[in-house]
């Protein structure tokens, strides 16, 4: 599967995370509030991250989208770099590489999944 962030991939994951059509429309309206300002970067990548960390919860999506509109990095870190962001500056390089690989594998697994579940985010 191609994991390049795109509108098509955002819409696929939107419908995976929010299978009810009415809720999906509302979730898309929320998502589309990110990317309208000139300082909003990487619209589709951030929208995918928002879907992942919201884990199918519309209220959480609203809250996290408001945060992303202020600083998108606060959205990318927990979605794409969860384990790496928990490591300390003293983490050995070999261990950091393992964390990087696990984070990438976990993200790709979520992208391939047909639902909202995310290993680190379902309880947040």
Describe the structure.
The chain is an all-alpha fold and 124 residues long. It contains 7 helices and no strands. Helix 3 packs antiparallel against helix 4 (58-70).
Briefly summarize what is shown.
This protein is mainly alpha-helical. Helices cover 65% and strands 0% of the residues.
Secondary structure layout:
Layout: H1 7-17, H2 21-31, H3 43-54, H4 58-70, H5 73-80, H6 82-86, H7 93-112
Helix pairs in contact: 1-2, 1-3, 2-4, 3-4, 3-5
First-to-last CA distance = 28 Å
Q: Which spans of ≥5 residues are poorly predicted at pLDDT below 50?
A: 119-124
* SSE topology string: HHHHHHH
Number of distinct helices:
7
Number of strands: 0
Computed structural class? mainly alpha
Tell me the strand percentage band.
Answer: under 5%
Please bin the fraction of helical residues.
55-70%
The rough form would be described as: globular
Q: Any idea what the radius of gyration is?
A: 14 Å
Overall pLDDT confidence: 90
Largest sheet: none
What brief labels describe this structure?
single chain, 124 residues, mainly alpha, 7 helices, disordered C terminus
């Amino acid at each position: 599967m191609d994991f390049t962030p795109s509108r098509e991939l955002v819409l696929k994951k939107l419908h995976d995370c929010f299978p009810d059509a009415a809720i999906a429309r509302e979730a898309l309206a929320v998502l589309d509030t990110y990317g309208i300002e000139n300082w909003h970067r990487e619209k589709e990548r951030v929208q995918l991250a928002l879907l992942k960390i919201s884990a199918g919860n519309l209220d959480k999506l609203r809250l996290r989208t408001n945060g992303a509109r202020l600083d998108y990095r606060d959205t990318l870190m927990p979605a794409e770099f969860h384990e790496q962001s928990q490591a300390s500056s003293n983490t050995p390089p070999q261990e950091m590489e393992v964390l990087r690989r696990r984070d990438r594998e976990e993200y790709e697994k979520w992208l391939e999944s047909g639902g909202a579940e995310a290993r680190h985010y379902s309880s947040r």
